[in-house]
Design a protein that fits this description.
With about 150 residues, the protein is of the alpha+beta class. It is built from 3 helices and 5 strands. The longest helix is centred in the middle third of the chain and has 22 residues, at about 65-85.
Amino acid sequence: MPLSTVPAAPGQCIFCRLVAGEIPASRVYEDEQTIAFMDLGQLNPGHTLVAVKRHAATLLDLTPDEAAAAMRTAQRVAQAVAAAFDPPGITLLQANGREGEQTVFHFHLHVVPRHAGDGVGLAWPRKDPPRELLEGYAERLRRALASAG
């Protein structure tokens, strides 16, 4: 079953328009495949988005080269965030599909400086399934990986 996304009408993807220079952005970094810019919502000072330039809705739509480029840029930006803002922690977040909490359907990563008591939460309930169930999940994934080549 494909991920649940909300495709933008042609020419309406906000990140594609940002990449094209049609809308303003506080750009931080740019290379051939990626762009980094300040998130308008700023969970904490220095909150930066890293996006691929080509329109790709989710992680599953990226080429391997784009995925690698996005992670290289995220690491580079995280290093700059650490140097510029000196946070005691950094959260790297990437969401896919509506149910995965994705809100802009153009692949991007959030680089979020973190501080104790900043009110930003990433808590989820632990389910602690039995080992046999985990082994079954692992087998399903191994089969999927093998069939993908």
